[in-house]
Structures are given as C-alpha cells and as structure tokens.
Amino acid sequence: MVSIYQRIFTDIETKIISGDWRPGDRIPVEHELVTEYRCSRMTVSKALSALAERGMIVRRRKTGSFVASPQIDRTVMDIQDISTEAELAGHEHRFEILARTVERLGEAEAQQLSEPPDAEVLRLQCLHIVDGRPNAIERRIIMLDAVPRAREESFASIPPGKWLLEQVPWSKAKHVIRAVSADTVTARILQTERGEACLSLIRQTWQNGRTVTYVEITHPGDRFQFAGTFHPTAI
C-alpha cells in the first residue's frame, strides 16, 4: 500500500514534471490538500517539505507554495547551456537543429542509461555556432515519459539545453569530461580535421531516479575550455 504522504508527493511531482504545473504556478494550499486526500495537516506539510527539499517547490509564509524555477547550481560544475555561456562571455551565438527523431531505446542504450528497453525518446542533434564558427555538436536524448511536452517542441527559437533548464526540474546530475579525436562526421560538421583533438562533455540528469536527459557535447579542442573557480570548504 502506498502511504498518503507518498501519494501527495508523487501526485504533485508528476504534475510538475509533466508540465501541467509550470514554474511560478501556485499549488493547492494545505487545507485544500487535507480535504482532497482526507489526511492530517501534518502529513500534507511533510510531503510539501520533502518537495521543497528536492527543489521542486518553494514554500512562502502567508502566500503558499509555488512550483520552483529549475536550479542550476547544485553540482560542482554548474549546468548551463552553451548559448548562455557564449552570451555571458560577450560572444554571438546561434544554433541549428541538424536532426530530430522520436525513437525507442535499443538494449545497449537502455542498459547504459539504466532505463527500460523500448522506452520512447526524442533524439536531437544540434550544431552550436559561436562568432560564426562551429563550436559544438550536441547529441541529446530526452526521455519522453519524463518530459512528454518535448514531443511537440520544435526548438526553432530556443536550444534544447536551455529549454530543458527553463522547463524541467532535476534532482541529480552526472558529468564526464574527456578528450576524444574527431571522427569523419564530427570533423565535417565542426569544420576541422579528422583525428583532431576535441573536448567531450557527457551529462545525464535525473528527477527522483528517472532520467530526464542524456547529452554528449563535443567541442573542437582549440575553440573551447572548461574552467571553474573553487574554494575550500569552510571549517
């Protein structure tokens, strides 16, 4: 049997992830949830507190609880899209969607992502251009069970990474940075030589144990660098 606390948590989480409730939307007040779920106010408060700890809602005294804007500062390396990074550095950015298909995960990818085989995904390939030169190839998978509204999004005016950061909450992220050599296709798209050194960022994000997106972003080695400033933890 699922506890009432878990039902409240899951129902609200599902409405946020599905897009029924968007960032800034007010969720039902406590006494409305008490009536709807026929439970104590303490149970409702516990569920809302857990959602707030996950960063999914913001609780404000006297005004209620609201769907939180997605956070980008929960990991050592900030999750930030390429367009924002370029603009903050004073560069001109544009992008092109090279491929967009709805597919089902094969067994190998499903195992790699720890997701069910045949799960439906939106597969995207995007080229980022900074100051007129190809700067990155973005190869992305978006899990449609976690982000169903991505199915209808054309990404004509906003890059996939930026759209996801603005629309979809996440609770966990993993980064892998590695050096790779440009294969024939990558070299052609990035206008470099086959075998040239590139920097690759692999990122996977989750919400409550469910994959939201998996992306591989490949940059020409001579046109990009990863940098960060860190401070020791205060004692």
UniProtKB/TrEMBL annotation:
Q: Which SUPFAM superfamilies match?
A: Chorismate lyase-like (SSF64288), Winged helix' DNA-binding domain (SSF46785)
- The protein, known as: Histidine utilization repressor
Q: Which SMART domains does UniProt cross-reference here?
A: HTH_GNTR, UTRA
Asked if the Swiss-Prot or TrEMBL record annotates the protein with the keyword Cell membrane, the reply is no
Q: In this protein, which residues make up the domain named HTH gntR-type?
A: 2-70
> Which lineage do the record's taxonomy fields give for this organism?
Bacteria, Pseudomonadati, Pseudomonadota, Alphaproteobacteria, Hyphomicrobiales
Which keywords annotate this record? DNA-binding, Transcription, Transcription regulation
Name the InterPro entries for this protein: Bact_HTH_transcr_reg, Chorismate_lyase_/UTRA_dom_sf, His_ut_repres, Tscrpt_reg_HTH_GntR, UTRA, WH-like_DNA-bd_sf, WH_DNA-bd_sf
Look up keyword Metal-binding and say if it applies. Answer: no
Q: Gene3D superfamilies given for it?
A: Chorismate lyase-like, Winged helix-like DNA-binding domain superfamily/Winged helix DNA-binding domain
